[in-house]
Each structure stands twice: as C-alpha cells, then as structure tokens.
Design brief:
- By secondary structure, the chain is of the alpha/beta class.
- It has a single domain, classed as Alpha/Beta hydrolase fold, catalytic domain (Rossmann fold, 3-Layer(aba) Sandwich), CATH 3.40.50.1820.
- Helix content is about 45%, strand content about 15%.
- The chain has an 8-stranded mixed beta sheet with strand order 1-2-4-3-5-6-7-8, with helices on both faces.
- Helix 9 links the parallel strand 7 and strand 8.
- Helix 2 crosses helix 3 and helix 4 packs antiparallel against helix 8.
Length: about 270
C-alpha cells in the first residue's frame, strides 16, 4: 500500500493506475478516492490516473490539523513531487474542485487541463445553511444520522429510488466512514472559508466546468458563475444527476471528460 510521508509525520495514501498523460482525480469532502471507482477502468485506458485519500480521510493519517483548501492543495503538490510529475490534468469533484481552482491560481505551472465538477466559488447563504445543519446533525445525532441525511442531499431522487441502500447507512458503517467526527467538522470549516473569486480571472488552464441542474449541495448557479469568471471556460450543466452526477450519470460525465481532454491528450 503506497504511502507518502508528509512533513510533520502524517501520511498520504495514494494509488497510480494506467498509462498515459497524468490525470489527478481529486475527491470531495469525504476525501476518499473510491468515489471515482466506476471510472477507473475506462479512464486508465488513456491516462496515468493519480488518486489519493485526503489527509484526515480514508487510508491517510487521521490528523487533527487546521484544515484549509490551500493545505489540501499543498498535499496534492507534494504527491506530484513524490511521483516526479511536473504537470498533470486535474479533475476535481466538489472540494476537489476547490483544490483545482487553488492549484490553477497558485501553481499554474503544475496544471495542464482543469475539470471542475459540482464545485463552488465561495460559500453563500444556501451553502452556509446547508453545512450548518449538516454540522449540527453530526454533532448532535452522530455519524449515522449525518450519513443518512447527507445521502438525500448528495444523490438525485431518482438515484435514491433505484438504490435505497445508500440512504440506509447503519451506525456501524457510518462510524467506519467517519472515524473521527472532529476531523470532518474541521474540514467543513475549511470549505466554508474557501473564497478565491477575486482571482478566478488568473486561471489560464483550459477549463471545463460541469454541474447538474438538480444539485442541492453546489447548485448549478455556482458552476455557471465559475464558467463566466474563468477565461475561456466551457460550462456543461447536465439536466439531472444531483451532486453525485459523476456516479448517477456516469456515461454522460465520462463522455464530456474525454471529449474535453481531447484526442491529443489521450494519445489517439
């Protein structure tokens, strides 16, 4: 199991799959690379996929540090350095998209093409209220209630109807996923503090912004704002799929990703 030693003693779990141009797949708030599992085999035909579990999540160190999106972006740079990769495409979902914005602004030499999925510009009234309630549920009712309620926000209604088990998480399973609730609370604080709106015009990487019209976590207006603010960005809004549209609308999502990355980028 590959682990990257970070300054201070924490460790970052990572995995490299496939051959071709490097493509970072950066997950959201849950921080676990398993989110991209449905896409690994198809994408690995064209790319060298670089995945990791965020610090504080999954198989990485459960560190009670002061989290920030900039810190998360720094961990991604450390992973690229460790792998000897100077420049890579980046596909970031939700918090992974905030990481992608940060790297494209602060470390533009490291990002080739940028795909921002179901992400946001800065916390507004809706975003703050949503996460305030999710935070209160986690603190007051525990990981089980948090996971079950979150499933209703993260997934489109049609997807929950087809897969009711995703909204029926047991307390045991929830505690396995959220081993240290304090870390999750600190990560929520970090995403609520994120705001790089004033610098989005500095992004020069070719950028695809993707959202879903029925996303209740990062509503489509966030994607539309990003598309307007990033020079030359392309914006695609799927008609449905919820916040987890890369799973619910797997084929459409991947088709847009491959199209945007282009024949030259995938070696065809």
């Amino acid at each position: 199991m590959p682990l990257l030693d970070l300054p201070g003693g924490d460790r970052l779990w990572y995995e490299v799959v496939g051959e071709g141009p490097p493509l970072l797949l950066v997950p959201g708030l849950a921080g676990v690379s398993d989110f991209f599992a449905p896409h690994l085999r198809p994408l690995a035909r064209h790319f060298r996929l670089i995945l990791h579990d965020h610090r504080g999540c999954g198989r990485s160190s459960l560190a009670r540090i002061d989290y920030s999106v900039e810190q998360m972006a720094g961990d991604v740079v450390a992973l690229l350095d460790h792998l000897g990769i100077d420049r890579a495409h980046l596909l970031g979902h939700s918090t992974g998209g905030a990481i992608g914005q940060t790297l494209a602004i602060d470390r533009p030499e490291r990002i080739d093409r940028l795909i921002l999925c179901a992400t946001w510009t800065a916390a507004d009234g809706w975003f703050r209220l949503l996460f305030q309630n999710r935070r209160e549920i986690l603190e007051g009712l525990g990981p089980g209630a948090y996971a079950r309620v979150s499933a209703l926000f993260l997934n489109a209604p049609f997807w929950v109807r087809l897969h009711p088990e995703i909204a029926a998480v047991s307390e045991e399973e929830a505690r396995r996923r959220i081993r240290d609730p304090e870390i999750l609370l600190r990560r929520i604080k970090a995403i609520l503090a994120f705001d790089r709106r004033a610098e989005l015009h500095r992004i020069r990487a070719p950028t695809l912004v993707m959202g879903a019209r029925d996303d209740m976590v990062t509503p489509a207006y966030f994607s539309e704002e990003l598309g307007r603010a990033i020079p030359g960005a392309e914006t695609v809004i799927l008609p449905d799929g919820g916040h987890f549209f890369p799973v619910a609308r797997e084929a459409s999502f991947r088709r847009h990703v491959l199209r945007f990355l282009g024949a030259d980028a995938i070696g065809q």
